[in-house]
Amino acid sequence: MDLARSLTFALTSASMVAVARGEFALTTDSNCHCYQTNATQSNYFSHHRFFDFRSLQDHINVPNPIDNWDDSAGAPPTSDYFTNSQFADVWSIQNWSNSELIDLDNSTITDATLQMVNSPNNIYIERDEQQPDNTHLTLRTIRHHDFQSAAEFESVSEKYHFLSMRMEARTQGPPGAVTAMFTYRAPPNPEDTDLVQEADLEFLTRDPPHYVSFTNQPAWNSTSDIPGASHNVTFPGPGRRWSDWAEYRMDWTPGSSTWFVDGELASHITFQAPRDPSQVIFNAWSDGGSWSGRMPKGSTAYLQIRWIEMVYNNTDSHGQHSKQEKQSTCENVCSIDETSKIGTPVLVSAGYRQAVQTALLWSPVLVASLMSLVV
Ligand SMILES: *[C@@H]1O[C@H](CO)[C@@H](O)[C@H](O)[C@H]1NC(C)=O
Ligand SMILES: *[C@@H]1O[C@H](CO)[C@@H](O)[C@H](O)[C@H]1NC(C)=O
Ligand SMILES: *[C@@H]1O[C@H](CO)[C@@H](O)[C@H](O)[C@H]1NC(C)=O
Ligand SMILES: *[C@@H]1O[C@H](CO)[C@@H](O)[C@H](O)[C@H]1NC(C)=O
Ligand SMILES: *[C@@H]1O[C@H](CO)[C@@H](O)[C@H](O)[C@H]1NC(C)=O
Ligand SMILES: *[C@@H]1O[C@H](CO)[C@@H](O)[C@H](O)[C@H]1NC(C)=O
């Protein structure tokens, strides 16, 4: 064995000893060159973002519903939290409506039966009733007398290229609403619905309490459902319901979408997995169509979110890495899974520079390893 190989072996042993102690140090994003998740060994993500809605007491404001269509679209943000750059640089609160798409007599794009408008008034911070010292974000959708108001925020960037995104959330409300976390890439023309790229986590309040839907769109065309695009499954593990708080996770990696609930695998779809850079969207809505159903007049449904976390963008665009390539682009590998503090990464493996430092601290191990090679 030549010296370089011996040294590499010794350094690897040394860093493995450090790791075997089981304690990963909390670190900061500035110290992480890439992130590995505990579900994908071959994909490394280059960026990390964390939005914590749990201690925004200064921003609590549960606004009264606005029963007027124009005022719903024109409503201001409910708190300056949403206009601060930390939020607004990444997310854009929507006020579009389906009135251009909808044709109540005949439409091939949507089977909506209700006019729906997204309102900034339906996105706000409120007290967490189960953790009264804390707050959460709420997305609200309301069935008004003659229209539906909804809530949606979209990423400003349309260029998320693979990701692992998570939220701690729950959904509340009567049948007829959809709440969702998804990636979206619009088709080149709105009519080309077969060219949409989209991976969805959706809760349908018309579903039984322990059902959840996972889809790589398109899930239907003008004549039929597309087999294999959508999985309507029961929650993994017993006793879980969409009305309870849980950690929901979607991993979009080259060639597949995978969903987890509280760390347990819930579904995996390779068919029609999105390929190209996409937006990230959260919403709560209903349009009276066949997917959402119709909420009773005067009723309200909610998507409530305590935090959102994402690692995104592959460290290389093909999603494949040789070990050498990885080491050249990514010295310090971090994890958001192995952490003891949600939102704060831990350093799981340090590159050569840090490995040398580690090895020096572990010089008895280094010496022992070298000796064993010599013998
Ligand atoms: C939507 O919001 C923008 C500001 O973000 C505003 O200029 C526009 O008028 C709103 N649209 C409607 C239909 O009110
Ligand atoms: C509805 O759409 C179908 C298919 O595009 C068309 O054949 C039919 O004439 C339309 N009906 C009305 C009332 O527009
Ligand atoms: C992901 O990476 C691409 C290519 O480097 C870049 O253009 C894009 O802005 C990145 N996406 C985000 C959300 O930063
Ligand atoms: C999912 O399956 C359940 C049980 O069969 C059913 O009640 C529900 O309507 C289904 N939901 C969707 C969206 O297909
Ligand atoms: C709709 O999807 C079905 C199932 O994949 C397929 O057989 C059919 O040809 C598609 N129809 C159209 C109009 O694309
Ligand atoms: C992966 O990490 C998540 C936390 O992000 C955890 O809930 C889950 O149990 C872990 N899965 C495995 C297989 O270690």
From TrEMBL:
<dbReference type="Pfam" id="PF00722">
    <property type="entry name" value="Glyco_hydro_16"/>
</dbReference>
<feature type="signal peptide">
    <location>
        <begin position="1"/>
        <end position="22"/>
    </location>
</feature>
<dbReference type="InterPro" id="IPR000757">
    <property type="entry name" value="Beta-glucanase-like"/>
</dbReference>
<dbReference type="InterPro" id="IPR013320">
    <property type="entry name" value="ConA-like_dom_sf"/>
</dbReference>
<dbReference type="GO" id="GO:0004553">
    <property type="term" value="F:hydrolase activity, hydrolyzing O-glycosyl compounds"/>
</dbReference>
<protein>
    <submittedName>
        <fullName>Glycoside hydrolase</fullName>
    </submittedName>
</protein>
<keyword id="KW-0732">Signal</keyword>
<dbReference type="GO" id="GO:0005975">
    <property type="term" value="P:carbohydrate metabolic process"/>
</dbReference>
<feature type="domain" description="GH16">
    <location>
        <begin position="70"/>
        <end position="316"/>
    </location>
</feature>
<keyword id="KW-0378">Hydrolase</keyword>
